[in-house]
UniProtKB/TrEMBL annotation:
Alphabetical list of PANTHER family matching this protein: BIOTIN PROTEIN LIGASE (PTHR12835), BIOTIN--PROTEIN LIGASE (PTHR12835:SF5)
Reactions catalysed according to its record: biotin + L-lysyl-[protein] + ATP = N(6)-biotinyl-L-lysyl-[protein] + AMP + diphosphate + H(+)
Enzyme Commission number(s) from the entry: 6.3.4.15
Keyword entries, A-Z: ATP-binding, Biotin, Ligase, Nucleotide-binding
Organism per entry: Phyllobacterium ifriqiyense
UniProt-listed Pfam families: BPL_C, BPL_LplA_LipB
Residue ranges occupied by any BPL/LPL catalytic domain in the UniProt entry: 16-207
Keyword tRNA-binding annotated: no
Protein name (database record): biotin--[biotin carboxyl-carrier protein] ligase
A GO term, aspect molecular function: biotin--[biotin carboxyl-carrier protein] ligase activity
C-alpha cells in the first residue's frame, strides 16, 4: 500500500488517483488509460519510476523516494491552449513546494557557483522556461507534456511531473539537486498532496486557456534568469543574448547579441556559466 492521497478539494472536484509502489512510466500509463477511454481528471503517481522520460526523449531518473506524477486530462481541449498547461503545472508545483518545504540550505547558485554555508533561507523555487523548476539555480523538478487522440476524436493531454525528493542525477551537464540535499524535510506523499491541492487553484485560473494572461503574470513573478545572459539551443544552433520575458503565448523572448528581439517556441535554455559550458 502506498501513502499517496488526493487533497480534499481535488476529490470534491472529481479528480481520481491511481498510486503504484513502482512503475515503468507514469506518463505511459496515463496515455494507456486515455487510449482505453478513461474520462480524465486522473492522477497516476509513484515513488519509483523505472523508465521515465523527459523532454526530447531524454531519460528521467526517478529512484525510490522521488515523486513521479502524471495527470490525465480529456475533454474539449485545444492543442494550442493545452500546450500551456506546463506553465500551470510549474506554478502548481512551486506553490506546493513553498507550502510544505518552507526552508532549505542552498548550495548552488543560478550560474552553478557554490554558495555552501549560506545557511537556512526561504525555499526559493524558480521556474525555468519552458518546464523546469530550479532551487538555488539547480534543477529540482521537470515537467513533460504529451498528448494523444482518443477513440472519440477528443484530445487527451498528460502532464508528467518529476520531483527530486531524495536523490538527483549525477551524470547530467547542468547543476541538479533534491529536496533532501537542500535540507527540506518532505517526502513524496506530502509533496503530491500539496501538488494536487495547488493544481486546483491554478487550473481554475487557467480556465481552458482563457486565463493564460494571469498564469503568465504569475509565472513571470517566479521566473529564473530574467535580465541575465542566456544561451538557447535550437535544432543544433545556439542563440545567445539576454532573456527579456515570455510573450502572451508563453514563447521565450530573447534580445540577441545584435540587439534583435527573438521569440522562441521550443529550445533548451542555459544561463550564465552553464550556458558557456554546455550550449556550444
Amino acid at each position: 500500500m502506498t501513502g499517496f492521497a488526493l487533497s480534499p478539494i481535488a476529490e470534491q472536484n472529481g479528480f481520481r488517483l491511481e498510486a503504484f509502489e513502482t512503475i515503468g512510466s507514469t506518463n505511459a500509463v496515463a496515455l494507456e488509460r486515455a487510449q482505453a477511454g478513461d474520462p480524465g481528471k486522473l492522477w497516476i503517481v509513484s515513488k519509483k519510476q523505472a523508465s521515465g522520460r523527459g523532454r526530447r526523449g531524454r531519460a528521467w531518473s526517478s529512484p525510490e523516494g522521488n515523486l513521479a506524477a502524471s495527470l490525465l486530462l480529456t475533454g474539449n481541449l485545444e492543442l494550442k491552449s493545452a500546450a500551456t498547461l506546463g506553465f500551470v503545472a510549474g506554478l502548481s508545483l512551486a506553490d506546493a513546494l513553498n507550502a510544505v518545504c518552507p526552508s532549505a540550505n542552498f548550495s548552488v547558485g543560478i550560474d552553478g557557483a557554490s554558495n555552501a554555508g549560506a545557511g537556512k533561507s526561504p525555499l526559493r523555487v524558480e521556474l525555468k522556461w519552458p518546464n523546469d523548476l530550479l532551487a538555488g539555480g539547480a534543477k529540482l523538478a521537470g515537467i513533460l507534456l504529451e498528448s494523444t487522440l482518443m477513440a472519440d476524436g477528443h484530445l487527451a493531454v498528460v502532464i508528467g511531473i518529476g520531483v527530486n525528493v531524495v536523490a538527483y542525477p549525477q551524470d547530467v551537464p547542468y547543476p541538479a539537486t533534491s529536496l533532501a540535499r537542500l535540507g527540506a524535510n518532505c517526502d513524496a506523499e506530502t509533496v503530491f498532496l500539496a501538488l494536487s491541492d495547488a493544481w486546483e487553484e491554478n487550473y481554475r485560473i487557467w480556465a481552458n486557456g482563457r486565463g493564460l494572461s494571469d498564469i503568465r503574470k504569475r509565472w513571470l513573478s517566479q521566473a529564473a534568469g530574467i535580465g541575465s545572459e542566456v544561451a538557447v539551443r535550437i535544432d543544433g544552433a545556439v542563440l545567445r543574448g539576454i532573456f527579456e520575458t515570455i510573450d502572451e503565448d508563453c514563447q521565450f523572448v530573447i534580445r540577441d547579441n545584435d540587439g534583435v528581439r527573438q521569440k522562441i517556441a521550443a529550445g533548451d535554455v542555459h544561463f550564465g556559466t552553464v550556458a558557456s559550458a554546455n550550449a556550444e
